[in-house]
């Protein structure tokens, strides 16, 4: 036997290799295109926007603000492909309602009606479908919204993943409410409604069979009531956003880019539950980019910030709301965090997503 170690690389098929950070020069769709980060933005900019056109789509809000017969409406659609279908704190049925209700709420609208489309894979158990439908119906009743129409399709076994859902929703935008990132100005106060990161970590813990000493539950919730409480203080909020895919980091970057202002966040003020922080440390994740399903970030004129914060804290879904930063003239379009050590770091727009299939 030779005592010389063979250091030659084994034969490797380059086509079989994967990269956790997707390359930007792609000729095919990759998972990162659905992650709510830079790849998603490029897909919209380079493929969908030129194909569809239209000034309304160009606003790129969570919901489209429309004028129809003299009435201002918010209209939104979303698709849900979460895996697993059931997780601590919710299910794909809860997400399907709350995700669309929240997109409408970010325009200031209280959802009135939803459509619901189910895509079922051949072979999925009817008991599973019934559980999802029951959860969806219960979430709709809790949010005060009616499922008014729907559709069902079935695909062959192996061509789906049990249950996919699409929902669309409409709601009225109150008079005097104009929520869009273009209204953000330097000096606005940035408020987050509560601790971040629970949803993404809850999904990952179940998906990978991980235990962190305490069960982490999704924050999945309908935010319409919280937004109503904020608007009751003043309709002059500048923008709201629910930081789902791409997390808080992506939401802040989207608003900074669209408004042309800089955003400065005090890192120690960003609320991260200890269990989420510990899980992210183990998994090598940044909580700023982990998805939420029951939180919002608000950009509020400074003169209204304290009153809006008080109203948020008086609501169950905003009890832990906190001011985390402000908008500035410097570094327009960029988000910067002041660290606990007195330095700064750039919170960039993620390329793809840390956790795929979380909504």
From TrEMBL:
Signal peptide range equals none
Q: Which residues form the PurM-like N-terminal domain?
A: 62-173
Cite the PurM-like C-terminal domain residue spans from the record. 186-330
> One of this protein's Pfam families, by short name?
AIRS
- The protein's superkingdom reads Bacteria
Q: Write down the NCBIfam families for this protein, in alphabetical order.
A: hypE (TIGR02124)
Protein name in the entry: Hydrogenase expression/formation protein HypE
Q: Name the source organism.
A: Streptomyces gibsoniae
